[in-house]
Amino acid sequence: MYEWIIIGGGIHGCTVATYLVKKKEVPIHKICVIDPYPEPLFKWKRLTGLIDMPYLRSPFVHHLDTHPFSLKSFKKGGGENFYGPYKRPALPLFNQHSNAVLEGIKISKAWFQGKVEHVEKGDNGWIVRTSSLDHFYGSNIVIATGMNNKLAYPSWGSDLVVAHPKQVGHLFAESLPRIEPPIVVIGGGISAAHLVVKLSKQFPGLVYQIARHPYRVHDFDSDPGWLGPKYMSGFEKISRYEDRREVIDHARHKGSMPSELANKLRNLKRSNTFTFIQDEIQSWDVSDNEIILHLTKIESIVKAKTILFATGFSREVMKVDWLQRLIQEEKLACAKCGFPVVKEDLSWCNHLFVTGPLAELEIGPPSRNISGARKAAERIVNHTV
Ligand SMILES: Cc1cc2nc3c(=O)[nH]c(=O)nc-3n(C[C@H](O)[C@H](O)[C@H](O)COP(=O)(O)OP(=O)(O)OC[C@H]3O[C@@H](n4cnc5c(N)ncnc54)[C@H](O)[C@@H]3O)c2cc1C
To answer: What is the distance in A from the centroid of ligand 1 to the CA of 9?
Structure first.
């Protein structure tokens, strides 16, 4: 019987594990982290590696460890380790620090590779079952499954990806199509931006970015005021969850990127290293192994051998069979948007906690980010039940 079972071993699940060991002094052998991948943060490292992200968007105080200055003191800050006025850490540094923190708590002793497919309440706690039919028993559960692998596509995109999987794919999917120029990147946010920079270096002049909107420039994906009482005290007073959802949606700078990245793109655009098109796709067809995209506003077409969607994750985070069964069986409260209504300590019911997107009606706009992981972990380890 584990004291804590954490479902999902990404940044959120691993931050909770770190806080449980370091702040609550839970022995690591009493924690079980279940995740489909062989090691912690696998998905984070894969996605950020794919786009060659040089620096995180978040500042140096956002990381997995309990002490805010842990990353700063991990290595002496230098030009190459931290970027800009917010001291955003370089990705390799952030990953090395995360590895060191997780090795420090001996997370490998808690790691179980598997995909959770069923959770139910037993006589003495929770029973968790994976797709390979392994069973786990635990007193407390934390659901840290992130965006639940739900990808977002524009309305015309899902048919295209099904019809031509060898040439068309989503950047965040498990596998990518073969990359052959000319390449079209669909999307105007930070992941699309990093991807365009990377591909333009490899295939100068043969990359197109198609986005619905011009570059939206914001340092962070929500105002830093959301990290403290400036905005959060008002948010916490909102009793209607529909209103909280509206506030969250409004506060997020969706599809935005920091200024240095927008400047990099502008320079590459100026030197014709890639082409930016602000438009939408009306339809597509295929001719001679090339996909032809028909644009809406400009009466024109773009031909591509490869199309990559960098359109992020879908909002349908809660459309997961085992989660829906759990909600019904335990009569768990959900808001109209389908997301959990949880207590301040992030418990959905006794001994069942959430973090990440599932905690956002309580943690607010930064809930999905690393700062949200820290806040959630703090609240979970401080719970009093
Ligand atoms: C490219 C990119 C860059 C980002 N950069 C930043 C940044 O600089 N700063 C910042 O604050 N945020 C950033 N974010 C946002 C956010 O911090 C990250 O997405 C972060 O990885 C989210 O962590 P997570 O643990 O919630 O999700 P994930 O990393 O997705 O981890 C969730 C884990 O749960 C697993 N899981 C899902 N379902 C199950 C199941 N049924 N059973 C078992 N396991 C399951 C998943 O497979 C996954 O391994 C970035 C996001 C992306 C995509």
So the answer is: 9
CA 189/CA 256 separation, integer angstroms: 5
User: Do residues 13 and 111 both lie within one domain?
Assistant: yes
- Residue 164 CA to residue 156 CA, distance in Å, equals 13
Our answer on whether the CB atom of 98 is closer than 6 Å to any ligand 1 atom is no
Give whole-number Cα distances, 102 to 70, 95, 109, in Å.
13, 10, 11
**Ligand 1 neighbourhood includes 44 CB (under 6 angstroms):** yes
353, burial (CB in 10 Å: exposed 0-12, middle 13-18, buried 19+): buried
pLDDT for 2 beyond 60: yes
Amino acid at 281: I
Tell me, yes or no, if the pTM score tops 0.70: yes
Closest CA to 60 of 91, 75, 82: 82
pLDDT in tens, 69-87: 999 999 765 557 999 999 9
Question: Mutation test of ligand 1: which of 44, 113, 318 has the most ligand atoms closer than 8 Å to its C-beta?
Answer: 44
Length of the chain (residues):
385
Distance CA 22, CA 357 (A): 24
| Range(s) of the domain holding residue 165 | 157-218+253-309
Nearest CA to ligand 1 atom 1: 48
358 CA distance to ligand 1 middle (Å): 12
Q: Evaluate: CB of 146 within 6 angstroms of ligand 1.
A: yes
Residue nearest to atom 12 of ligand 1 (CA): 369
Domain boundary at 309, 344, 373, which?
309
Q: Which atom belonging to ligand 1 lies closest to the Cα atom of 145?
A: 34
Question: Of 309, 325, 348, which residue constitutes the final position of a domain?
Answer: 309
Rounded to the nearest 10 degrees, the angle between the axes of helix 259-270 and helix 190-202 is 40
Q: Is residue 365 part of a domain?
A: yes
Which residue's alpha carbon is at the smallest distance from atom 18 of ligand 1?
369
